[in-house]
């Protein structure tokens, strides 16, 4: 004789123990069912029928006894292999239909195929065909609450058939239906049995049970009669067209892993997540405020911080951030001030880190034009002046190298000199002014610097050739200080080191000079700004944390509310990791939505700030970083609830309220 498809040997199941009284629900069930049989298990309420069905369908494990499925002991299968068996071999039909309330009829029917990794097109077509066959062709888009009880039960039968439904386990399928719908459902089960499906029908109603070929009666956890056992001749009536029994060896070759399933599952998980979020949109929005505010504040605060930093840098860098100033200094109070010579300047000029070098000798002196007297800073410097200080001439031109060589008495004046000293003159170019009683001819006017440099007196200045200043005004040849432009604004520090080393050599190891730079000041300023950004950033991080806790809260609530759905998914063949993936996807979706909303809010706030003329500089890094943080928050805080969902026991989940 053939190996029975299902073979139960002395199956016992008891609940309770330790602190609660022990209940023996099944007390030694022996039962074999062959391919193609239509079996009814009948018994009074509380006799253990559902418990038996859960064990038959591998949703539950017996306390003791052996369950052989196609000859293989089910006790030896892992939870993934059991999920595979539920998916491939069984189709469940429950008294309460157990459809997923947020999904349409079509989606409910497709679910087992998603876990089996059936490609989307085949899945859609098959589900539509099944619904059509069960008379629900018009209802595919309806959600369960939009269907009558009879229609819902037919949807659940379609779902049971989706992956083949070799063995249909129907637990009181007509229990909640009116007599007409009940008859329809029974006719359907009859048809399925005659097509060769194994149908195991559980009922308390003898009349319903009478439709089956074989009737097993159960009372208080024991089989008290079995029409096949009592009437052995009838047993050979196994349906000749019986469906091929599920081949367990196939499972091993498939590795219990439905290949390509993850893609369908991911799409399904994202859709399911979106639906649940949409249904609870108010609650979701409130809970997501934490993440929204967190992301928005990170982005806005960093943008404001960066904006003000750039503003300060721009102000300080108006004279060039790559500039170094070298002047004489005394190593200690008793030694005389060191002197920088033009030889030093010539030597420094050869350094590769030095782009330009310019000696300056200047003084605050009296200048006169006609009968107007004014005090101004007169600096002797060479022709590097406009490029070093990024300070163009707006009228006339700068003096030339020839002027420098000849110590020509020419002057380039700042706007304040033009406007005050030469105020009555229409064209200052060509005019002679007296500097310390020495006549100098004006050849150019410098652009106005004041507003950008932050120094109100920088335009009250006259630039003359260094040689002319040395010979005609100051009576000395050594520069007061030297301005050096580093070759690379980002390598000012390196230039500083090189200059320092060379100067030490030139001055025989004496440190009688001082080297300062704008960059150092800018860097100090930037550091303060960075500290500020860091502080603002950590405030934002705290709100992200709060947001994460919100996600965890909402996920825990979701898992509790949808425990039944988790049970249904497991009954249709979802593995633990499928459930984990689904709820993790939901958590990530939540934070992605929160993150995007946060970025949108940040841009909005930024726009308002820009309109109110606050310096704002959005950086892509900050936006991506904040979004990434939100994503990580979702994964981290969603993991615990998702794992909790995945570890639920299928039966407990199914029977939860
Ligand atoms: P039936 O489906 O035949 O009405 P069940 O199999 O649902 O019966 O239940 C049989 C008995 O097992 C009942 O007395 C019920 O109280 C008990 N029972 C079922 N599940 C549990 C459980 N999780 N814990 C304790 N007792 C249970
Ligand atoms: Mg029951």
Automatic annotation (TrEMBL):
Keyword Nucleotide-binding present in the record's keywords: the answer is yes
Q: Please, which domain of life does this record's source organism belong to?
A: Bacteria
Q: Know the name of this protein?
A: Macrolide transport system ATP-binding/permease protein
Q: Which UniProt keywords apply?
A: ATP-binding, Nucleotide-binding
| Keyword hit for Nucleotide-binding | yes
